[in-house]
Amino acid sequence: MVFRLMRKFDCRLLPQIRTLSALLNDLAKIRQFGIVLEVFDEIVKAGIRPDIFIYTVVIRSFCESKDFVRACEMIHQMESNVAELNVVVYNVLIHGLCKNHGVWEAVEVKNGLVKRGLRADIITYNTLVLGLCRVEQFDVAVELMDEMIKLGFVPSEAVVTSLVEGLRRKGKVEDVLSLVKKVGEIGLAPNLFVYNALINSLCKNGKFDEAELLYNEMESKGLHANDVTFSILIDSFCRRGEMDIALSFLSKMREAGIKVTVYPYNSLISGYCKLGNLCLAESFFNEMINNRLQPTVITYTSLLSGYCNEGKLHKAFRLYHEMTGKAIAPNTYTYTALISGLCRANMMVEAVRLFGQMVERNIMPNEVTYNVLIEGYCKDGNMVKAFELFGEMVDKGLVPDTYTYRSLISGLCSVGRVSEAKEFLDGLHRDHRKLNEMCYSALLHGYCKEGKIEDALRACHEMVARGIDMDLVCYGILIDGTLKQHDTRRLLVLLKEMDDQGLSPDNVIYTSMIDANSKVGNLREAFGLWDIMIGEGCIPNVVTYTALINGLCKAGFIDKAELLCKEMLVSNLLPNQITYGCFIDRLAEEGNMDKAVELHNAIVKGVLANTVTYNIHIRGFCKLGRLEEAMELLVGMADNGILPDCITYSTIIYEHCRRGSLHEAIRLWDSMLNKGIMPDTLAYNFLIHGCCVAGELNKAFELCDDMFRRGVKPSKVTHDILARGNHSKNSYENVDQ
To answer: Can you provide one Gene Ontology molecular function annotated for this UniProt record (predicted)?
Structure first.
C-alpha cells in the first residue's frame, strides 16, 4: 500500500530493491501470491530493475498459481536482465513443475542448467527424485539417484524412503536392496520405516533368508526393531508353518519391552489353525483376551476357519455368533470359511442359506466363495445347481479358475457323465481358458473309474499336445486304473514312460502298487515294492502300512501284521480306523470276537473308532449269532457320538429276519428311517424277504412301493423274492449274495 501511494504521488524517494525483495518474500510466506504479482507489475512500471531474489519470488508465485507459461517467460526475462544467475530460481521452477505433474519438463529444466553455466545441487536432485516417484517413474529416479551419489551428494532420508517404498510396491526388491547398499556406502542408514517396508516385501516375495539378514543388519546399525518389525517377521514364520521360530521372535519382542499387539496374535492363531493345532490357537486367543486385546475379524475368521477344517462346525458357529454379538462384522472370508465347512459336512441346504444371508448383508462373495459352493454341489452330485452357480459367477464378472473347472469336471465324472466332462473340458480349451494338470487329472480319474483306460490315455496325449505336462498325479491315476485291470504290460509301459521323463514314483504310486498286490495275496511282490520304495527314499505313510497289514491279515498272518503295526508306531505313525479295521475284520472272520472286542475298546478309547469299524464288529457278532452283543454295539455307537449308516442297520435287520424276529426287524427299520438314513436295495431285499418268509406279503409289496417312491431301484433279486413269496423259507443265502 505504501509503495502504491509513493507511486501515486510521484514520490522521488522509492524503496530500495532490498526492501522490495523483503516485502515480496513476506507476502509469499503468507501465500498472498496474487498481491506479489501485482506489486511486481508496479515495480516494473516504476522502472525499477528486479534482482534475482525478486525474480525467484515472482516465479514461485506463478508456479503456485499453476501459470507455468508465465513462469517460464519470467525465467527468460530474468536471464536477459540479471547478470549473475543461480540454481535457486531454477529449483523453484523445478519444484513447481514436479508438484503439478510436470516432472518431464522439470527434468528438461535441470538438463538445461549446464548451458547456463550452472550445476544442479542437492535440492535439484532431491526434488526431481521425489517428483519422479510421485508419478511412479522409478527407473529414471534410480538413474538420478545414482548420478547424485556420484557427484558426492547425500540424498535426504525422505527421498530414500520414497524411492524405496515405490520400488518395493512395484515388486523390485532387488533394486531396493541395491539402493540400500549404495546409500549405506555413503554413510546414510535408511530409517526404521524403510527397513520394515523392505523386510515386509522380502517376506511377501518368499525371500525369507534375505529378510532375516536385513533384520540382523538393521540391528547391527543400531536400529532397534519395533512392534511393526516383529509383527512382520512373526507373520512370515507363521505363514511358513515355522511356529517355533515365530515363538522365539515373540519372546524377543517381549524381552525388548515391546507390547505385543493384536497383529502377532492373529498371525500365531492363523498359523496354528492351518497346522490343525487348534489347542494352541485357542490358547493364544485366550491369552489375547486376558491381555485386554480386542480380537478383530481376522482373529475370529482364522479360528473359525480352523474349526471348519477340522469338522467342528458347532464351535465355528459359536464363535461366529460371539463375534457378531460383539458388533464385529464378518467379511467375505468369514462367510467363505463357514460355507466351506458346511459343504465339506455335506450340509448344502445350510451352506446355501448362509450364502443368501451373506448377499442380503451386501457382503459380496468372491471366486473362492463360489468355488467352495460349486465343489459342494459337485460332491453332492447336484450338477444342475453346480452349473447354475458357475453361470451366476460368470454373470457377476468373477473369473472362474482351474479350481472351478476341476470341481465341475470331477463332479460330472462322479455321476457317470464322463463324456460330458470331456466335452466341457474341450469347450474350455476352445475358449482359450487356462487349464492345468489338475483339470485333466479329474477327467483321467473319471475314465479310470469306469475302466476306460484307452480313453484316459487318449486324453493324456491331447493334454500333452495342448502344452500341459503329465505330472505324478496323472501318472498315479493311470497306474491305479491299470492295476485295477491287472494289466501288467501297460503298467510297465507307464513306469518306463515316467522314467524317460525324469519322474520317479512317489508314495502314492508305490502305495497303489503295494495295495493292488496285497489285495490279490501277492505278498512277495508287495514286500519287494516296499523295499524298492524305501531304497528310493520314499517314506511309507499310514496308507502304505495299512495296505500291507490288510494283505497280511487276509492271508492269515495276523502276527506279522501286528509286528508291522508296531514298526509303524516306532516311525511315529498312528494307525487309523482302517488299519484297526483290518485286524477286527480278520478276528471276526476267525470268530475270535473276544480279542476283537478288546481291540475295539482300545480304538474307542483312542477316539479312532468310526462307522466302518463298528460295522465290521457288528457283522462279526451277527455271523456268530451273538445278536445281543451286536445290538449293544449299535447303542454304544450313539453314546460315542458315531452315527450308524445303512450297512449298520441292514446287517442287524438281516439277522433278525433270519431268526424270524420280523417285528424287531421292522422296529429297527423305522428307527433307521426316523434318523434320516436312506435304505439301499440290499436293505430293502433283506426286509422284503423277511416279510415273505413270515407270510406278510402285503407288507412286502408295501416295501416295494416304498422303494419306487424313494427312487431306489429294485434288483433282479427283489423281483425273485416277490415272485417266490413265502414258498422258500431257507433262501437267505441267496438274498445275502
So the answer is: mRNA binding
